[in-house]
Structures are given as C-alpha cells and as structure tokens.
Amino acid sequence: MVAEAPAPLPLKRRRFTNIDPMEVEAAKAKFAAIKEKFGRELRVFQTPALSPSSNEASNSEETDDFYEFTAEDYYRILAAKKEDKLLRTRKLREAEEAARRSKATKAVIRVRFPDHHTLEVTFHPSETMQSLVDLLMKVVARPELPFYIYTTPPKRQIKDMAQDFYSAGFVPGAIVYFSYDLPKGDDSTYANSGPFLQEEIASLKGLELIAEQSQQAEPVQPTPEPVTAAPSPVVQDQKPAGKKPVKPKWLKM
Known about the structure:
There is one protein chain. The chain is of the alpha+beta class. It is built from 8 helices and 6 strands. The chain has helices at about 20-40, 50-55, 70-85, 90-105, 130-140, 185-190, 200, 205-215; strands at about 40-45, 105-110, 115-125, 145-150, 155, 175-180. Strands 1-3-2-6-4-5 form a 6-stranded mixed sheet. Helix 1 packs across helix 8 (about 205-215).
C-alpha cells in the first residue's frame, strides 16, 4: 500500500523573532546621529582574518618588493593601450567616457584597517581624495599621528589628493588600506596594534545587520486582487404575442 504524500503547505515568510524592537530603534537612532554629525552614512564591518600562512606574510604591512611592478606587466599594459588607441578614435573615446561619467552616481569606498575593521562610506564620484582623508581625520582613534592610504596590488600610495574618485577608477566602489606613516620602532608597533577607529565609530559594527533583519521581519501584506463584478443578466421585456385580426363574416370585399 502506497501512502499518498500530504499536500505541500503554503510558504511563509521567515520571521526573526529574536529581534528586540528597542535595539532596532536604538540602531536607527545611532545611524541618524552619525549621519547628522559627519554628514554621511557610515558602516563598520569586521573583515575576515586571513589564513595563518598569508597572515604571517602580511602581519603588519607588506614590503614594497611584494608589489613590485615587473617589466612584463609594463609591456603588457603598454601593448593593450596601443591596441585600444588604434581601434578607437579620440572623439569616440571622449564620447564614451562622458556617457559613463554621466551615469556614475556614487563611489562606495571601503577603508580597511590593520585590525581587520572596515569602514564603508559613500561619496559622489566628483569628490576628491582629500574628502576621504578629511573624514578619516575625524574618525580615527589617533588623528594626531601621520598616516597614508594606499591601494593594492600593486601597492600604490595615494598622493594626489586633488584627484576625484571617478578619475581614480574608484567608481562604483573601491577598497583602500590605512596605515600610520611612522618610522619602525616602539611607537610604530604600538600605533599599529590598534584600535584604529574611535569608540563611537567602532560601535557601529553589527548595527546594520539589526536594521536589515528588522526590515526582513516586517510582514508583507499581499495586495488583494481587484474583484470584477459579474455583469447582471439583461432581462428583456417579453411582449404578448399579438392575435391575428379576424375578418367579420358580414364584411364582403
């Protein structure tokens, strides 16, 4: 005897029952206060630590030899640029560049610190690198110490603070790295041990998850389908069948 499988139950939206409404309101209030203070929405994430083998090589900061730009890399890029120049005219490239720039609306920059914390902030593509440095001066734990930011690989220190994010290739987003610019010694070791962010900023870590889960937990009411009323049947008035006139017998034609 084969038992029939039960009819599948309708799918239900998952509810996060472990979210405290007070925590949700507190998270939203904190994000709003930070945005009002710094003029931008800030997010803080915990970057996954590297594996022991790779972490040993980048415990503090990789050496310049690790990101050495080889002659092979140079000639490969040079050949690609020559080919691109031959295939497209100057006016065509300028038109395509203007079209791409007009479509760019934001540059999401993530700054990674040596203690595996990541600060995310959104800029307009026309803003410059100086705006990022100015923000870091306000949020780092020790703004009195000199620092620099760089990209990798290859390792390239960002020095042109007047360059905008679009021209730097940071649209729609990019990852930059933070490091204190101190000579090697006790002070450098102490500074690079962290914390790198102010306590007020570091406390944002994990709050975005609470806000996202609260949005997912809100029940979504299905939109009722419009009910179309069936047309009422048209009742036609039935007229009694007319009787055929009877000619009187006395009438002679």
